[in-house]
C-alpha cells in the first residue's frame, strides 16, 4: 500500500512538534523512510512541504534539518496569530452555518462544564477544537489553512499554561459564539481580540529536550 505524502508530512510534523526531532537535528530521507515504513519519494515530498511551512530548513552540506526558530520569530508568530484569530471570528459572524454554530455552542457547554469541575486536560483539547471550528466557520480556505499551520507552530514553539480562571475563559468563548450567532462581526472581532490577548500571556517559549531514541512508526496502522 502506497502511503500518501500528506500522511508522511503529518507524521513528521507531529514528531517535530512533540520534540521527537529536536531543533537543528538532521532529517535524512533514508532514516525517515525507515522510521515510517515508506519509500523515500513521499518523504522527499513531505520535507518540501514542511520547509515551505517553516518546520524544516535545508543547510549546505547537511541537507534537511529541523528549523531553529529564534525567540523573535516565535514572538512574531504569536502576534500574527493574535491578529488573524479576530479576523476569523469576524468572518465567522458573516459566514457561519447552522452546523458550525451547533458545534461551537456544544463545545462551549462542555468547556463551561469541565471548567467548573476543574478538568484541565479536557479543557486544553476542547479549546483547540473551539478555535479550529471558529476558523472553519470563517468560510475562508486560505485563512483556515494559515491558522491551522500557525496552531501547529505555536504548539511547537510554546508551552501554554492552563488559564488561571478557566470559568472566565470559557465565558469569553461563549460571548464570542453569541456574537457570531447574531451576525455581529465587529463585536465578534473585538471579543476574540481581547480573548487572544489574554491567552497570549499564558504562552512560554518551549525548550525541547534532546531525544535519544526514535523508534519506528507503522504508517499503515491508522496514523493520520
Tell me what you see in this structure.
The chain has helices spanning 5-18, 29-36, 40-53, 71-95, 98-117, 120-136, 141-157, 166-182, 185-200; strands at residues 56-59, 63-66, 158-160, 203-205. It is elongated, with a radius of gyration of 19 Å. It is mostly helical and 224 residues long. This is Transcriptional regulator. Keywords: DNA-binding, Transcription, Transcription regulation. Residues 2-69 form the HTH gntR-type domain.
Q: Name the overall outline.
A: elongated
Largest sheet: 2 strands, antiparallel
Strand coverage percent: 5-15%
> Helices and strands: which structural class?
mainly alpha
Helical content class = 55-70%
The strand count comes to 4
Termini Cα gap: 15 Å
Q: How do the helices and strands follow one another from N- to C-terminus?
A: HHHEEHHHHEHHE
The total count of helices amounts to: 9
Organism: Streptomyces virginiae (Streptomyces cinnamonensis)
InterPro entries: GntR_C, TF_FadR/GntR_C, Tscrpt_reg_HTH_GntR, WH-like_DNA-bd_sf, WH_DNA-bd_sf
Protein name: Transcriptional regulator
Keywords: DNA-binding, Transcription, Transcription regulation
Amino acid at each position: 500500500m502506497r502511503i500518501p505524502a500528506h500522511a508522511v508530512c503529518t507524521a513528521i510534523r507531529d514528531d517535530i512538534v512533540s520534540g521527537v526531532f529536536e531543533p537543528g537535528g538532521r532529517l535524512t530521507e533514508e532514516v525517515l523512510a525507515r522510521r515510517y515504513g515508506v519509500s523515500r519519494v513521499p518523504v522527499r515530498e513531505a520535507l518540501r512541504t514542511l520547509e515551505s511551512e517553516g518546520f524544516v530548513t535545508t543547510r549546505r552540506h547537511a541537507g534537511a534539518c529541523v528549523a531553529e526558530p529564534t525567540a523573535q520569530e516565535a514572538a512574531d508568530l504569536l502576534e500574527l496569530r493574535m491578529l488573524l484569530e479576530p479576523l476569523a471570528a469576524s468572518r465567522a459572524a458573516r459566514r457561519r452555518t447552522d452546523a458550525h454554530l451547533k458545534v461551537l455552542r456544544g463545545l462551549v457547554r462542555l468547556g463551561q462544564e469541565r471548567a467548573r469541575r476543574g478538568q484541565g486536560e479536557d479543557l486544553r483539547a476542547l479549546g483547540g477544537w473551539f478555535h479550529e471550528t471558529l476558523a472553519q466557520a470563517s468560510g475562508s480556505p486560505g485563512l483556515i489553512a494559515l491558522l491551522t499551520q500557525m496552531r501547529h507552530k505555536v504548539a511547537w514553539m510554546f508551552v501554554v499554561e492552563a488559564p488561571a480562571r478557566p470559568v472566565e475563559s470559557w465565558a469569553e468563548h461563549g460571548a464570542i459564539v453569541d456574537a457570531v450567532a447574531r451576525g455581529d462581526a465587529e463585536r465578534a472581532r473585538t471579543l476574540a481580540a481581547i480573548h487572544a490577548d489574554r491567552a497570549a500571556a499564558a504562552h512560554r517559549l518551549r525548550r525541547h529536550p534532546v531525544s535519544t531514541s526514535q523508534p519506528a512508526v507503522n504508517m499503515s496502522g491508522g496514523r493520520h
